[in-house]
Design a protein that fits this description.
The chain starts with 16 loop residues before the first helix and ends with a helix. The chain has nine helices and no strands. It is 76% helix and 0% strand. With 229 residues, the chain is mainly α. The radius of gyration is 19 Å and the shape is elongated. It has helices at 17-30, 36-49, 58-76, 80-111, 118-129, 131-144, 148-164, 167-186, 196-228.
C-alpha cells in the first residue's frame, strides 16, 4: 500500500499575528451589525475556507474571535453575556459544519481507495474528536488574557460549554458514528462495487473511527456520572 497525503483534517496553516489581529478586529466590528451570531458564523466559515486557516488552528481562531467580540462589546457598551453567547453560537455552528465537511473528505478519500498511514488517520480523527475541547480551552485562554466583566463572562461561558457541550461536539460524534458503521457497510463486497484498495481503506477508516468513538463515548459517560454526583 502506497503512502498517501495526510488527510485534510490534520492540516494546519500556523496563522501569523497579522492574520489573528485582523480576525480580532473583524470580530470586534461584528458587534455593531444587526445579527452578531450570523456575522460571526460567516466570519469563522470564511476564515476556515477562504484564508486557508485550518481546524488545526482552531484554538487561535476562537481566542481571537472571543477577545475581539469582547473588545467590541466593551467599547460599545453592549450586553456582554448575551453578546458573547450569540457570537460563540455562530462560531460553534461554523466549526461544526467544517468538522462535518472534514469527515466527509476522509470518507470520500477512503471510498476512492486512498491509502492511509494509520498514524496519520488516527491523528486526523483525534483532531476532530478534540475540537469541542479546543473551543472550551480557547475560551479559558481568552478569559485569562482579559479583565473585568469580559474575564468573568468568558470564564462562565467556557464552564457552561464544558458541561452542556457544543454543536461541534454533537456533529463530530455523529460523524464518527457514521464512519464506524456506514463506512464499513459500504465496503462490503458486492455492496457498492468498490475496488479492493477502496474496500481496504474504508475498513481501516472504520476500525480507527470505532476505537476513537469508543474512547469518546467512555469520556462522555464519565462526564455524565460526574455531573450526577
Amino acid at each position: 500500500m502506497n503512502d498517501a497525503q495526510t488527510p485534510v483534517p490534520s492540516q494546519t496553516s500556523i496563522p501569523d499575528n497579522t492574520q489573528l489581529m485582523q480576525l480580532h478586529d473583524e470580530a470586534a466590528a461584528a458587534v455593531s451589525t444587526p445579527d452578531l451570531r450570523e456575522r460571526v458564523r460567516e466570519l469563522t466559515a470564511r476564515v476556515l475556507h477562504e484564508r486557508r486557516m485550518a481546524l488545526g488552528d482552531l484554538r487561535e481562531i476562537v481566542t481571537a474571535i472571543a477577545s475581539g467580540v469582547g473588545s467590541g462589546l466593551t467599547s460599545r457598551g453592549g450586553e456582554m453575556k448575551d453578546g458573547l453567547k450569540q457570537a460563540m453560537a455562530g462560531l460553534d455552528e461554523a466549526v461544526g459544519s467544517a468538522a462535518q465537511a472534514a469527515s466527509y473528505t476522509l470518507r470520500e478519500a477512503a471510498t476512492q481507495g486512498q491509502a492511509f498511514r494509520d498514524n496519520e488517520l488516527k491523528a486526523s480523527l483525534e483532531q476532530l474528536r478534540d475540537l469541542e475541547g479546543q473551543i472550551v480551552e480557547a475560551l479559558k485562554q481568552a478569559a485569562s488574557q482579559s479583565g473585568g466583566k469580559l474575564k468573568e463572562e468568558l470564564g462562565y461561558l467556557s464552564d457552561h460549554l464544558k458541561i452542556s457541550g457544543t454543536r461541534t461536539g454533537e456533529q463530530v460524534l455523529e460523524s464518527l458514528q457514521q464512519m464506524a458503521s456506514g463506512v464499513k457497510a459500504s465496503s462490503t463486497a458486492g455492496r457498492t462495487g468498490l475496488s479492493e484498495s477502496a474496500s481496504t481503506a474504508t475498513e481501516r477508516l472504520s476500525q480507527v473511527a470505532s476505537g476513537i468513538l469508543a474512547a469518546l463515548s467512555e469520556s462522555l459517560k464519565r462526564q455524565s456520572e460526574r455531573l450526577r454526583s
